[in-house]
Amino acid sequence: MGEDTGSAPIIVVTGTGSRVDTTLAAAALTVGLRDEGLEVTVTTPVRTGATGTNGLRRLSDLTGGTHVHERITLAADLPPRAAATVGGIVLPPVVVHAAEWARLVRRPELDVLLVDDPEGILTELDEDGSCLLDVADAAEGLDLRVGVVIACGVGRDDLRQAGLIAAVLRSRGVDILGCVIVDDDGAANDTAAANPIRDQLPDACSAPLIGHIPPEVRGWDPQTFQDRAGAWLPVA
Question: Does the first or last residue of the chain, that is N or C, have fewer Cβ atoms within 10 Å of its Cβ?
Answer without folding.
Answer: C
